[in-house]
Design a protein that fits this description.
This protein has 7 helices and 4 strands, in the order H-H-E-E-E-E-H-H-H-H-H. It has 158 residues and is mainly alpha-helical. The protein has one domain. Strand 2 and strand 3 form a beta hairpin. Helix 3 packs across helix 4, helix 4 runs antiparallel to helix 5 and helix 5 runs antiparallel to helix 6. It is globular, with a radius of gyration of 18 Å. It starts with a helix and ends with a helix.
């Protein structure tokens, strides 16, 4: 049989745990690094291997950014900036660890929708890519290379 004809069947058998991990890391890092731009006092940049430990606090310029550029409806800029900075740190950490993955992915998917529709509506190619990965993780879960699976296995063993 032709190898090209058997390729789809062979690809279907490929374990997708590594692909899910890649998706969790890629999207998680995008949001984590965005969150890092909103705080001072704590720098954890895995891309540039930069670590500065300290107590994180909201950058004063971020509130201005939410007030002057982002202008989210219904939320005061101080609250919106705090929620964004918190969400962009907590949810990506959960996503990368595979802990509460579906919840974290759903939260980041909601943030992506807000960014797309209220902040940067012209950036659909980027936001659409994030949304596709996040929606896939919501629907299919984190895969076997995640704390969610380890916790579920330990719980089922009891």
């Amino acid at each position: 049989m032709n190898w090209l004809a058997t390729l789809p069947a062979r690809l279907d058998r490929w374990p997708d745990g590594w692909v899910r991990l890649l998706g969790r890391l890629a999207v998680g890092l995008v949001f984590w690094l965005s969150g890092q731009t909103k705080v001072e006092g704590l720098v954890l940049d895995p891309i540039h291997a930069t670590v500065e430990l300290g107590w994180p606090r909201l950058s004063p310029a971020v509130v201005d950014l939410f007030r002057d550029e982002y202008r989210l409806p219904l939320l005061p800029p101080e609250l919106a900036a705090t929620l964004a900075a918190t969400g962009e740190h907590l949810l990506p950490l959960m996503l990368v660890l595979g802990l509460g993955t579906r919840f974290a992915a759903l939260g980041l998917l909601a943030m992506t929708a807000v960014i797309q529709f209220l902040v940067y509506p012209g950036a659909f190619p980027t936001h659409g890519t994030w949304a596709a990965v996040l929606l896939w993780l919501v629907l299919r879960g984190p895969g076997p290379l995640a704390l969610d699976g380890w916790i579920a296995a330990r719980t089922a063993a009891r």
